[in-house]
Structure formats: structure tokens, C-alpha cells
Design brief:
8% strand; globular; single chain; mainly alpha
Length: 157
Amino acid sequence: MIAKDKEVELLRTIPGVGLITASTLRAYIDDIHRYESPKKFASHMGLAPWVQNSNETIHHGHITKRGPTEMRTAMVQCVLGMVRLKSTTGGYRIITRYTRMKEQKGSGKSIIATARKLSTIIYVMLKNREPFDPLLMTHSQKYLNMPAAASEAAEAV
């Protein structure tokens, strides 16, 4: 059934995503157009934070876990697959963000936060029917040169 499935092929273009993980995600996603936004897609998976509002006070809690457990597990496996392939994915913004967050918040929270970010990437990939583009994941030269330009400007003053 999945041999000629275009969505599974698109999901497998993500480094670290294998056949089983892509098939699991495909089975639960079904039609990506039923989600209005990436936020609703992440919420369906149960990766959205729990929010409680009262007057002017807003409390954010743990993830809601309201979606299918298998879907969340597949997203976590996607993140772990990307982390394992650091030789390929080490320069990706999503992985550098994961690494920095892991030092401050720990492994579990970092994996879930990265899975939520990856859900947005998957949503856009499937919505636009485009494969994973590693060039969009790398840091732009423009931004890498910003600290050097800022220090040069500070020295000039």
C-alpha cells in the first residue's frame, strides 16, 4: 500500500526518517488539508502545550497528549533519527536549537520541543508537496557573519 505513496516518499526525504516512521505518520495524518494550520496539526498530535487562561494570567503547562500516542512516538523517533545523524544534520538550525535547549532544559523537553518544530516542517512539506530541503535548514551566511560585523562596528566607535 505504501510502495507508491507520495506522502511516504516525501517524509522519507527527512534525514533519520525511515519506512516505518513515515508509514505511521502517513496513516495518522491521512489528508494534510484537513488541518487549517501547523498549530492545529501539532495540536492534533498532542504536541501543543496545555494553556490555562484566567483574566490576565496565562499558564502554560506540559503537552496535552490528546492525540494518538503512536503519532507522538513517531515524531519523537523522527527527532532521535535526526540527532543520531549528526554528521549530516549537525549544521541544521533545528538540531543546534535542540542541542542548546538540551543543555538548559534536559533531553525530554528538548526532544518534544524539537518534535513540535519538526511537525511544522512536515506540515509545510506535505501541504506544498515538496521534499525536505537541507539548504533551508542550515544557517544563512548572512546571519553567521552578523556577530563579526557587530564586533567590527563596536570597535570602530
